[in-house]
């Protein structure tokens, strides 16, 4: 078997599976804080360049009417961009609409899946909340792993027993860390999806199947049955994660549309103020060694690009999650996860 501590399509093991500053920024950082950080950086860069030996902004504005040229373009861009994003959002959400027969079929499929999970993890009624549902499913995986280890306590094949022990340790350790974070997770805050990504079910399915195939002659019927039960429980995690991921994408698209609608009208208002009331004779003098016109024009530019930056920050998270969950089931796409014994 390959190293049980290896990771799957979603990163490295346990809490480090999605570690690193890049993924923290792309996935966990609050979208408004991310937006504010980008806008602040842009503002600082614009102001800083006024200190470089370039043509002064006031000269450009006086000679070329740069304020009107710059900010009039924002008005069309903001209106068009907001309209397009909201339209795309409505097209995506329209998939939720349908005749009563289609809605009934969806309801029945949802109930059938819930019943399959309950039968597999031996629960009378699975929780309705996404975080609690995933918690019970991961807990069921942990219980199946423990049962498998108990079954192998009297196994004479030392190599097989060690492989099972390593596999169980990896599975239960990953499961416990995910369960701990799921306890207080609320759907819509990204915590549910974050912890769903942190459970590397694809690798666990592969490792369990590899143990069964390599030691089929040594495994008792009871042990083989428990491995099959383990695989069946893990196989349920994939559709559950994909379902909640789809719901989260729709949730985020709604949030994106609302955010753009909230910010577009103030941004358009600022653009109009810049065009109507700011020219080369506005706010003469300097502050902290920087021309006052630079301060106000840079602020206006930052407000103008704010809808676009909001769009970027939301789409970056959606695209990152989508990329890291392209393959469902026992498929591992990431180059770092290639197993040396494959091929």
Describe this protein's structure.
There is one protein chain. The chain is mostly helical and 343 residues long. Helix content is 71%, strand content 1%. It has eleven helices and two strands; from the N terminus they run ααααααααααββα. Helix 2 (31-49) packs antiparallel against helix 11 and helix 7 (158-182) packs antiparallel against helix 9.
Which features would summarize this protein structure in a list?
343 residues; mainly alpha; 2 strands; 1% strand; elongated; membrane
Condensed summary:
With 343 residues, this protein is mostly helical.
Mean pLDDT: 82
Taken as a percent bin, the fraction of beta residues is under 5%
Spatial order of the strands in the main sheet?
1-2
Largest sheet: 2 strands, antiparallel
Count of distinct strands: 2
Number of helices: 11
SS-derived structural category: mainly alpha
Give the low-confidence spans: 1-16, 336-343
> How would the global form be characterised?
elongated
Our Rg estimate from Cα atoms comes to 27 Å
Pfam families: DUF7972
Keywords: Coiled coil, Membrane, Transmembrane, Transmembrane helix
């Amino acid at each position: 078997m390959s190293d049980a501590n290896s990771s799957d399509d979603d990163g490295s093991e346990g809490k480090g599976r999605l570690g690193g500053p890049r993924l923290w920024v792309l996935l966990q950082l609050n979208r408004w804080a991310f937006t504010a950080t980008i806008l602040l950086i842009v503002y600082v860069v614009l102001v800083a360049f006024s200190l470089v030996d370039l043509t002064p902004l006031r000269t450009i504005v006086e000679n070329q009417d740069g304020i009107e040229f710059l900010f009039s373009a924002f008005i069309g861009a903001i209106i068009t961009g907001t309209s397009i994003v909201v339209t795309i959002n409505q097209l995506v959400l329209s998939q939720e609409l349908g005749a009563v027969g289609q809605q009934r079929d969806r309801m029945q499929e949802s109930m059938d899946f819930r019943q399959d999970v309950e039968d597999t993890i031996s629960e009378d009624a699975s929780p309705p909340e996404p975080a609690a549902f995933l918690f019970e499913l991961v807990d069921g995986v942990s219980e199946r792993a423990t049962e498998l280890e108990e079954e192998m306590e009297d196994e004479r094949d030392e190599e097989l027993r060690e492989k099972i022990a390593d596999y169980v340790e990896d599975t239960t350790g990953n499961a416990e860390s995910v369960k701990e974070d799921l306890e207080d997770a609320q759907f819509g805050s990204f915590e549910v999806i974050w912890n769903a990504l942190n459970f590397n079910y694809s690798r666990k399915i592969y490792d369990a199947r590899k143990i069964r195939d390599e030691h089929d002659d040594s495994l008792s019927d009871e042990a083989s049955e428990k491995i099959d039960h383990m695989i069946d429980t893990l196989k349920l995690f994939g559709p559950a994660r994909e379902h909640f991921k789809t719901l989260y994408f729709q949730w985020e698209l709604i949030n994106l549309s609302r955010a753009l609608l909230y910010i577009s009208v103030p941004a358009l208002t600022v653009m109009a103020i810049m065009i109507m009331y700011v020219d080369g004779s506005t706010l003469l003098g300097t502050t902290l060694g920087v021309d006052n016109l630079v301060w106000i024009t840079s602020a206006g530019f930052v407000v103008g690009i704010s809808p676009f930056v909001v769009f970027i920050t939301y789409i970056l998270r959606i695209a990152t999650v989508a990329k890291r969950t392209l393959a469902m089931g026992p498929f591992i796409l990431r180059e770092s996860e290639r197993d040396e014994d494959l091929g």
